[in-house]
Design brief:
Elements lengths: L1 E5 L5 E5 L30 E2 L1 H6 L3 E8 L2 E7 L8 E6 L2 E5 L7 H9 L5 E3 L9 H7 L5 E4 L13 E4 L2 E5 L2 E5 L8 E4 L4 E5 L3 E2 L7 E2 L1 E3 L4 E2 L2 H11 L6 E4 L4 E2 L3 H16 L8
Parallel strand pairs: 7-8, 8-9, 9-10, 14-19
Antiparallel strand pairs: 1-2, 1-3, 4-5, 5-6, 6-7, 11-12, 12-13, 13-14, 15-16, 17-18, 19-20
Length: about 280
């Protein structure tokens, strides 16, 4: 029996003797509807196993962001190629948006940083190898937002569902903001760092700016009302840093940056500046 991983999105699927069909990924439900609910449409060509991924030439890049925050990514990239984050706390570590692979190098790096006490994700595209990672570290809890349960490809007793707000470790919070997907969420550390996944996205050529996107491959933006909802939701908490799954970061004054970017997005998308176009 093997655990099968979609090479298009990196999500692990249930164990079986043979790989699923080519269109068997949970994110491949045929043509994507106009609602853009999260289905990626046809996107994977092959299924691979953790053993096959481990045998491919690669390395794990590790970055330290200070204040107990570290990020990891496989090079060359596999599937979506996101950055995973490990948050160190006195009460255990959070693995956020876990990698889609496990091998001795990445496991060694994580063990060196203190291991994993809980796993959580920003949204379903980042489920990756969440169950395999849990099993590797003693079947620690995997927190999944209940509004995204339909997208879970590999069900397991380690998965725990939550909504709105959760505190998986003392001082470390999960905040549901929606937008990119219904259950899209942000992790906030006790010192005011936000891990935003795709709920807020970076702008590589403008490092002091962020954007708000519904569908990234098609560049479909979020509506002004949803952007306002996300920013207002986060106003209940203080934060000064922000990191995205793409590796973009705001290292200071993140709350002010989010407000400025949101105000610009809302005014342009509402048609206030149509006379300039």
């Amino acid at each position: 029996m093997s655990t099968w991983i979609c090479d298009g999105c990196g999500l692990e699927h249930p164990e079986s003797p043979e790989p699923p069909p080519r269109d068997g990924c949970v994110f491949d439900r045929g043509e994507v509807t106009i609602e853009e609910r999260g289905d990626l449409g046809p996107h994977g060509q092959h299924w691979v196993t953790h053993e096959e991924l481990s045998a491919q030439p690669h390395e794990t890049v590790r970055r330290s962001h200070g204040r107990g925050l570290h990020s990891l990514r496989r090079e060359p990239r596999f599937a979506i190629g996101h950055w995973s984050f490990l948050v160190q706390t006195p009460h255990g570590n959070l693995l956020w948006d876990p990698p889609a692979y496990l091998d001795e190098q990445v496991l060694g790096l994580v063990r060196e940083l203190g291991g994993v006490s809980v796993i959580a994700t920003s949204h379903p595209h980042m489920f990756a190898a969440q169950v395999a990672w849990s099993h590797e570290f003693g079947r620690v809890p995997v927190l999944v937002n209940a509004d995204d349960e339909e997208w879970v490809p590999r069900h397991d007793p380690v998965i725990e569902y939550w909504k709105e707000h959760a505190e998986p470790l003392p001082g470390l919070e999960l905040i549901q903001v929606g937008g990119h997907m219904r259950g899209s969420s942000i992790a906030r550390t006790s010192d005011g760092t936000l891990l935003v996944g795709d709920s807020i996205s970076g702008v590589p050529k403008h490092p002091a700016w962020v954007s708000f996107t519904r569908n990234f491959p098609k560049l479909v933006p979020l509506s002004p009302a949803v952007v306002r909802r996300i920013v207002d939701r986060l106003d209940a908490w203080e934060y000064d840093r922000l990191y995205t799954l793409g590796g973009d970061g705001i290292d200071r004054d993140a709350k002010q940056v989010v407000h400025r970017a949101a105000e610009s997005h809302i005014r342009w998308a509402s048609g206030e500046f149509d006379h300039l176009t």
